[in-house]
């Protein structure tokens, strides 16, 4: 199958669909390929052709149906070659990676301090990076060739980014050979002359060697002078120009380097920690000399998903000392714990030496790398005879000190009692103050509440009186309406005698009498106070800090036990 199909299979697995869901459904196939997998219409058309071909092969018996439904699953071939077919990641044995790393480091060291590999850590293959890698393969020029395992020296910062699964950008640990691209080297590559610092300095600063699977593709060959001209262009411009010319990478034969301009064209596979020995002081006494050359690094088992940024301690061969028979240190007692006889700096190494000036136990590893010699360190047996009298004096002084310190302990207890007393007094004082404040607040609250209720009741009484007068006037009007009904009825009927005339005129007299108007006063409501009393209270109740003064008990200025050494 093509690289385009493998890229589609990976993205299809992420989308949640399976190939059997798309069988005999071109509409769903097109929708999933375009919307969920992000392919262009031209790529979708090519994928449909391959899909139809696979389905026909399955129906004709040329292909097992189970294979069709499991196309997205691929196996990795395992071999010891330096390259592998495109889109498939090879599994490399530890010995192969170490051997190739040591070859590269040998060329990197040149005539300087020799470098060696300390440990190989195999990196996991994140789905995001592998999908991007295969997606890039699908767009490279045909034939894409083979995937090669190439090397790059990376800083601790870059290693942390690789550990988090991020792709390597061109400006991360850029190489002076081509600052605008990502420069990687083959096993015999000459990378040292393009590093800003010496390889030994980089190794001591925690830089490591990282092996990448790189899709080299069609490569254009340039000289060092020619490729340096690319520094005037951006990485994107270099990539577009190279791609339009029909190439995927640049090869520099003089230094066996490969330069790519697309981060998805590579994927990290292994991290190899680099070991560079420190500068060693040569001892003056021939009775205490290293018995071997600087240690050669041993091969470590390959570990997946290890801690990438961690500095790894190498395991050197033992440094030999030529002691006299009389001063050979005795074997430690079995009751002594291993932690007491092991070096704190180099795990698994027993302490054998003593530095009187630093008062420090040393192992052979410390002696070899940290610049000690017979002029500034002794064997443990000799050091015991020298240090024991001083330790005895210290114990005597310390016993006297522990007896005299009781008076100081009494001062501490007195000071604590002083603190307790002051704390109790301040709490009681605070409680009394807040009682008075709360009482005044309660009185103020009752007074203000009474004012509100009194003013409100006065306004309600005034409104009720006015309403009563209005209702009395309305009742009088209704009464006169009733009294005028009968006389008006007789008048309309033409029955006008003396009695009816008097009744009609009496009602008329009452109706047209001078009515008193009912005055309705405006009412008011309580909306606040004559001063902003609550803001004043809140301002007075702002948080405050406790003040302190020196305690009554006089304590010593310091307790320094260094005088016990004298």
Rg over CA atoms, rounded to whole Å, is 49 Å
Predict the CATH topology of the domain at 83-275: Phosphoenolpyruvate Carboxykinase, domain 3
The helix/strand order is: HHHHEHEHEHEHEEHHEEEEHEEHEHHH
Mean pLDDT metric: 78
Structural class, by secondary structure, is: alpha+beta
- Name the CATH class of the domain at 83-275: Alpha Beta
Number of strands: 13
Structure characterization notes:
- By secondary structure, the chain is an alpha+beta fold.
- Among the domains are: 3-69, no CATH class; 83-275, Phosphoenolpyruvate Carboxykinase, domain 3; 411-540, no CATH class.
- It is 44% helix and 11% strand.
- It contains 15 helices and 13 strands.
- The strands form three sheets. It has a six-stranded mixed beta sheet. Strands 4-8-7-6 form a four-stranded mixed beta sheet, with no helix packed on it.
- A hairpin with a 4-residue loop joins strand 11 and strand 12.
- It is flat.
- The model is unreliable at 61-87 and 279-336 (pLDDT under 50).
- Residues 314-333 have a biased composition (Polar residues).
- Keywords: Coiled coil.
- Residues 405-480 form a coiled coil.
- It comes from Trypanosoma cruzi.
- Residues 313-333 are annotated as: Disordered.
Describe the secondary structure blueprint for this structure.
Blueprint: H1 3-15, H2 26-36, H3 41-59, H4 65-69, E1 83-85, H5 94-109, E2 116-122, H6 127-139, E3 146-154, H7 156-163, E4 182-185, H8 199-204, E5 208-215, E6 219-221, H9 224-227, H10 235-244, E7 249-252, E8 257-260, E9 266-275, E10 303-304, H11 338-341, E11 351-355, E12 360-363, H12 364-369, E13 378-379, H13 380-493, H14 498-511, H15 533-540
Parallel strand pairs: 2-10, 6-7
Antiparallel strand pairs: 1-3, 2-9, 3-5, 4-8, 5-9, 7-8, 11-12, 11-13
């Amino acid at each position: 199958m093509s690289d385009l199909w493998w890229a589609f299979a990976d993205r299809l697995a992420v989308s949640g669909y399976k190939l059997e869901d798309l069988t005999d459904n071109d509409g769903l196939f097109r929708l999933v390929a375009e919307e969920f997998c992000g392919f262009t219409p031209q790529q979708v058309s090519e994928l449909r052709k391959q899909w139809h071909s696979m389905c026909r092969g399955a129906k004709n018996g040329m292909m097992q149906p189970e294979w069709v439904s499991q196309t997205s699953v691929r196996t990795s071939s395992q071999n010891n070659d330096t390259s592998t077919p495109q889109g498939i990641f090879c599994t490399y044995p530890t010995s192969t990676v170490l051997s190739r790393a040591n070859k590269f480091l040998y060329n990197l060291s040149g005539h300087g301090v020799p470098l060696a590999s300390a440990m190989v850590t195999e990196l996991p293959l994140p789905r995001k990076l592998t999908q991007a890698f295969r997606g890039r393969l699908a767009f490279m020029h045909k034939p894409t060739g083979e995937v090669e395992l190439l090397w790059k020296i990376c800083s601790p910062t870059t290693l942390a980014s690789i550990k988090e699964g991020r792709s390597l950008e061109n400006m991360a640990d850029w190489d002076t050979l081509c600052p605008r691209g990502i420069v990687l080297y083959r096993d015999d590559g000459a990378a040292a002359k393009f590093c800003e610092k010496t390889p030994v300095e980089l190794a001591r600063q925690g830089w490591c060697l990282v092996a990448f699977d790189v899709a080299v593709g069609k490569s254009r060959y340039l000289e060092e002078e020619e490729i340096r001209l690319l520094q005037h262009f951006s990485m994107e411009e270099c990539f577009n120009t190279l791609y339009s010319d029909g190439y995927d990478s640049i090869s520099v034969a003089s230094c066996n380097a490969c330069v790519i301009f697309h981060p998805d064209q590579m994927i990290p596979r292994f991290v190899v920690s680099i070991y560079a020995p420190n500068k060693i002081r040569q001892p003056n006494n021939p009775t205490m000399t290293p018995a071997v050359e600087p240690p050669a690094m041993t091969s470590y088992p390959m570990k997946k998903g290890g801690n990438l940024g961690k500095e790894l301690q190498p395991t050197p061969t033992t440094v030999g000392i030529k002691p006299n028979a009389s001063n050979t240190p005795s074997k430690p007692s079995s009751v002594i714990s291993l932690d007491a006889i092991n070096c704190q700096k180099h795990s698994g190494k027993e302490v054998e030496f003593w530095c009187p000036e630093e008062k420090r136990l040393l192992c052979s590893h410390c002696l070899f790398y940290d610049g000690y010699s017979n002029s500034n360190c002794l064997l443990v047996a000799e050091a015991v005879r020298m240090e024991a009298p001083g330790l005895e004096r210290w114990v005597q002084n310390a016993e006297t000190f522990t007896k005299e310190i009781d008076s100081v302990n009494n001062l501490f207890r007195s000071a604590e009692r002083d603190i307790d007393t002051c704390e109790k007094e301040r709490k009681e004082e605070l409680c009394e103050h807040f009682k008075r404040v709360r009482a005044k607040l309660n009185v103020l609250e009752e007074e203000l509440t009474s004012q509100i209720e009194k003013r409100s009741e006065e306004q309600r009484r005034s409104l009720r009186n006015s309403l009563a007068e209005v209702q009395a006037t309305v009742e009088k009007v209704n009464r006169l309406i009733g009294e005028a009904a009968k006389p008006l009825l007789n008048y309309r009927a033409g029955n006008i005698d003396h009695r009816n005339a008097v009744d009609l005129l009496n009602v008329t007299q009452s109706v047209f009498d001078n009515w008193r108007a009912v005055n309705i006063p405006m009412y008011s409501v309580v909306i606040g106070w004559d001063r902003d009393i609550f803001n004043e209270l809140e301002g007075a109740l702002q948080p405050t800090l406790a003040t302190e003064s020196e305690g009554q008990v006089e304590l010593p200025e310091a307790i320094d036990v260094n005088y016990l050494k004298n």
